[in-house]
Amino acid sequence: MLYKNILLIDDDQDDAEIFTDAIQSLERGILVQSLFNSVLAFEELRNKELLPDLILLDYNMPALNGYEFLQKMKTNERLQNIPVIMISTPTDEFILQAIKTDGLCRYFSKPNSYNELVSILSGIL
After folding, report:
1. For a disulfide at 38, which of 14, 21, 22, 64, Cβ 3.0-4.6 Å?
2. Which residues span the domain enclosing 10?
3. Domain Response regulatory: where (predicted)?
4. Partners of 55 in beta bridges
């Protein structure tokens, strides 16, 4: 699938900037919007006219973590079919359960290097 409109939700603005740079380095014409507050991101997503093709979602966030965000999405008829890739460091067992029961389409740990991130994103996008 071609993802042309991506929403990145991560409370760490530095990480979001690195992800955005990595995606743009792929030169595939992908638009990336970053939101840094998961509660506000959910409200904005619910009210958006044009929904993203893919959501990159950090797990470790205050107020509403990535898993809670995903659960809220899956109960919203309009949002429940947007593919979500969770990024962060929860356990493999937790992620496997989320993939089975909550519609998470993929997961990866935040890599240690920019080149590794570009490689991962290239394979996904």
Report:
1. 64
2. 5-124
3. 5-125
4. 7, 84
In the block, tokens 């979001």 appear at 16
By C-alpha distance, which of 77, 75, 102, 76 is closest to 86? 102
CATH of the domain at 53: 3.40.50.2300
Range scoring the smallest mean pLDDT among 13-17, 32-36, 94-98, 116-120: 94-98
pLDDT digits (tens, 9 = 90+) for 14-51: 999 999 999 999 988 999 999 999 999 999 999 999 99
Is residue 22 within 8 A of residue 70, CB to CB? The reply is no
Long-range contacts formed by 86-92: CB under 8 A, 24+ apart: 86/57, 86/58, 86/59, 87/10, 87/19, 87/56, 87/57, 87/58, 87/59, 88/58, 88/59, 88/60, 89/59, 89/60, 90/59
Number of domains the chain is built from: 1
**Of the candidates 112, 119, 118, 109, which has an alpha carbon nearest to the alpha carbon of residue 60?**
109
| H/E stretch holding 54 | strand 54-58
